[in-house]
Amino acid sequence: MTAAAESTVTIDGRFARELPELAVPWQAEEAPGPELLVLNEALAKDLDLDPEYLRNLEGVRFLVGNHVPDGATPVAQAYAGHQFGGYSPLLGDGRALLMGEVTDRAGRVLDIHLKGSGRTPFARAGDGRAVLGPMLREYLISESMHALRIPTTRSLAVVATGRQVRRSTMLPGAVLARVAGSHLRVGSFQYARATENMDLLKRLADHAISRHYPQDAEAENPYLALLSSVGAAQAALVARWMLVGFVHGVMNTDNMTISGETIDYGPCAFMDAFNPAAVYSSIDVSGRYAYANQPVLAEWNLARLAEAILPLIHEDQEKAVAPAMEALGGFRENYSKAWSEGMKAKLGLASGAKEDIAASSLVDDVIAILKDGPVDYTLFFRRLGKAARGDLGPVHGMVLDLAAFDAWAERWLALEPDAELMDSVNPAYIPRNHLVEEALAAATNGKLAPLHELLVAVTEPFTERPGLERYAEGAPEDFGNYSTFCGT
Known about the structure:
The chain is of the alpha+beta class. Helices cover 45% and strands 12% of the residues.
């Protein structure tokens, strides 16, 4: 190994240093036979990490947590959370480690975090391990989300551990190395508040402001400003989910970031047929986190954040309630604006007072058309781009009520939709559920080619390319009802 390779990884332990009450020093479980399966070379280079180093033995051991570079302080993070509405005062990283922070080439401070690295003190009854399929799912979908311009954690690598892990059957174990603006969650604040340590709560809030919203430090009330900033970030994020038909599946408060990044791709999926009640998580039996419920649950989660930081907003908590409620009220306005602007773009429509009135009616009516029958959400909007160029045939054949669609299309076309704008926001390729399952099944059996082929499509989602036609098609009729699992 060259001297240059040895100096490739430089990691800081700022989170562990500034918030030790939320950080339990820990070491990853030794992987008996680590093997690098997927490496995100572009992301590695952005992080100023040498891909060749990450491919050699020491680099691979770093990616599973078995080699700890100088400066790194691996910790399991403590947090609380509401899971499916029920409060758990202590959750934490049961099978994950924060290795520390790196600074990328743009000067941004980012976490490197390992998932599936073994039991920690927060593991409860779990084994602390992860299996290959769910780790590759997170890699695939998080990189697709990044390509769709949706804020997200990124995936750096998936490494097989060389150990079989017991789930319903014995499955190959793996570790995911992921990157995020931070892993601060609503649940982090809930935990700090539950300790009744106001100094810790304040330091956590100051850390979040410094890391994500430095402008809030200058506000008259920085902590009220923080609540507003997080609300605005989450409103924009969830609107983007809704616009592409993404269903997160497990929007617990420990899975909502302060940064406004999508995190924890467990039982997630993209809709095939449009369905406001779409649920893909095998454990969401009540439909709490259904597609249409996501904005409501995001607002609910933000209310839990507000409760946690009330003492910071005003020492008299009763006097903190009114301004906190006002700040929370901004979520609906921000979400509505982001959703409306996004839908207008999907329809290729310009902004303006007169246009907005017409566009709003068109949005409402097209949603009604989609609800009327099983219409593939992604294909419908992509084919509308062809309709904007004069070819109504492909999209016309997708709807049940042809009279209603024809009347709608006449009004829409009268506004002269911009087809190029539509193609820039309506993806041709998403991680379609049948293709994801096909790729994961093949990978579990040692064949990574289908995964790499799917990655080629979804990491450049707006540009149609010859030879990728099957990646733009909807699910086959015999695919059936789709259900996902978190893999723990």
